[in-house]
Design brief:
The protein has 474 residues and is an alpha+beta fold. The chain has four domains: 3-95, 2-Layer Sandwich (Uridine Diphospho-n-acetylenolpyruvylglucosamine Reductase, domain 2); 99-217, Uridine Diphospho-n-acetylenolpyruvylglucosamine Reductase, domain 3 (2-Layer Sandwich), CATH 3.30.465; 221-335, Alpha-Beta Plaits, CATH 3.30.70.2190; 343-434, Alpha-Beta Plaits, CATH 3.30.70.2740. It is 34% helix and 20% strand. Strand 18 and strand 19 form a beta hairpin. Helix 8 packs antiparallel against helix 13 (357-371). The longest helix has 15 residues, at 232-246. It is globular. Residues 37-218 form the FAD-binding PCMH-type domain. Keywords: FAD, Flavoprotein. Belongs to the FAD-binding oxidoreductase/transferase type 4 family. This is FAD-binding oxidoreductase.
Length: 474
């Protein structure tokens, strides 16, 4: 749509650098990275300060213009993609990308919401510290979006989700007022903890503009191994062995199937398996300690030796350098890209109690094969915290269009197993627009009613990221 369809007040607030209205320049903001959705927008607003965000929100509230907050646009569930409707704008936080302060006494880092995760990690490293949130999209995903979705990632087993890494927030509410909660306190018992409302709300209650994050002492010693295991139960047993040996040393514990590993080594250039032969199941073990001479190598070797004697590990490769460690991690991180190159896939981000992970993988895989003969289950993910990406790859004899037309059947099939095991249909990706129809069945009754009441109280006009999280645009 042409720029003159936007009220002129926006231009006076943002200036030429703060508005994108050319259709070709807007395109990247209107599509999700998976290529599942495309929407429309009057313009893309790119404020540079909290004050500009607040002024834009006030104008949108005045004129009834919906707002789609957007960070790195890496959502797996369409949470940052506009709908195909008029009178809406995308509000990008990309220009608000500064590190405002790193305090190694309080062990906090204050940043703007548009800061890319990899840049936040680097800023902590420059001060001899660690910001532990880590995931495949860390070179693109931004802090505001990660908090808005309560992102998990690879180190949740040790450090928790994004919520646990946040101490304070600054948020622009749907009426343009600003909640300034940028406090660095570990203890603050003064009424409702409002900051937690906005973590995981996916931009439906307000726009996160700045955050106080927790940082930690940097790792001085690490040990990483890729293990071949005979089955899913052996992988869980191996995790328990490491947790029993030294729970504080386990930074990550990831599961990968043989099918997924085959896709990575086939479709990702330079990805090679550091084991003598392929296996049906793999576990990636990552240990770290903030103290020197922590004995992690001996710990790793001792646990693996016992596991091999028990038949729980059939082969293992230990990283001898940082380059080898990165190569092992690449085999895990390239799973989504390999699936994308191999054809269409349906992604199921689910969680169950850690003890139920082997059952989830087996039963969901069997159910999906029965539903669509020839489909290839590609389960992988964070076994240490119970979050498995129970993905399904299209059969080689089936078109992508026909396969994707069965997406909801596939999700329902996986979720039947998840529900029976006491799990959740969304572990770390959020609800977005992909899974709103599931909310009533999983979070109905008083729980969903409370969510609707909160939404109505903070956003009575319904302008903040409509069509996401709550069914029926509530």
């Amino acid at each position: 749509m042409p720029l003159d369809s936007l009220p002129p007040d926006f231009a006076s607030i943002l200036g030429p650098a703060g508005i994108i209205a050319d259709p070709s320049d807007m395109e990247a903001y209107l599509r999700d990275w998976r290529g599942l959705w495309r929407g429309e927008a009057m313009a893309v607003l790119r404020p540079a300060t909290t004050e500009e965000v607040a002024a834009c929100v006030r104008l949108c509230a005045r004129d009834g213009i919906a707002i789609i907050p957007q960070g790195g646009n890496t959502s797996m569930v369409g949470g940052a993609t506009p709908e195909a409707k008029p009178r809406q704008v995308v509000l990008s936080l990309a220009r608000m990308n500064r590190v405002l302060e790193v305090d190694t006494a309080d062990m906090t880092m204050t940043v703007e919401a548009g800061l890319v995760l990899a840049h936040a990690q680097r800023a902590a490293e420059e001060h001899g510290a660690l910001f532990p949130l880590s995931l495949g999209a860390e070179g693109t995903a931004m802090i505001g979006g990660l908090l808005s979705t309560n992102a998990g990632g690879n180190t949740t087993v040790r450090y928790g989700n994004a919520r646990e890494l946040m101490l304070g927030l600054e948020v622009v509410l749907p009426d343009g007022s600003v909640v300034n909660g940028l406090r660095r306190l570990r203890k603050d018992n003064t009424g409702y903890a409002l900051r937690h409302l906005f973590v995981g709300a996916e931009g439906t209650l307000g726009i996160i503009t700045r955050a106080v994050l927790r940082i930690f002492p940097a790792a001085r010693e690490t040990a990483t191994a890729l293990c071949a295991v005979p089955d899913e139960d052996a992988a869980l047993t191996l995790f328990r062995r490491f947790r029993t040996a030294d729970e504080g040393a386990v930074r990550a514990f990831e599961y990968m199937s043989g099918t997924g590993m085959d896709l990575v080594t086939r479709y990702v250039e330079g990805a090679t398996l550091p084991l003598s032969e392929r296996a049906a199941h793999y576990a990636l073990v990552d240990l770290s300690a903030s103290r020197e001479r922590a004995g992690l190598r001996a710990l790793m070797e001792g646990v693996l030796e016992a596991a091999m004697e028990a038949g729980e590990v059939t082969d293992a490769a230990l990283a001898e350098s940082e380059a080898q460690r990165a190569a092992i991690w690449r085999l895990r991180e390239e799973h989504p890209e390999a699936q994308k190159r191999a054809g269409a896939s349906v992604k199921n981000d689910v969680s169950v109690p850690v003890s139920a992970v082997p059952t989830l993988i087996r039963e969901a895989s069997e159910a999906c094969r029965a539903l669509i003969p020839g489909a290839r289950p590609v389960p992988f993910g964070h076994m240490g915290d119970g979050n498995i990406h129970m993905n399904l790859q299209q059969p080689e004899s089936m078109t992508a269009e026909d396969f994707l037309a069965r997406s909801h059947d596939i999700m329902d099939t996986v979720n039947e197993v998840v529900r029976r095991l006491g799990g959740s249909f969304s572990a770390e990706h959020g609800v977005g627009r992909l899974k709103t129809d599931m909310m009533a069945g999983w979070r109905g009754g008083a729980e969903l009613a409370a969510m609707r009441a909160i939404k109505a109280a903070l956003d009575p006009l319904g302008i903040m990221n409509p069509g996401k999280v709550l069914p029926g645009d509530a």
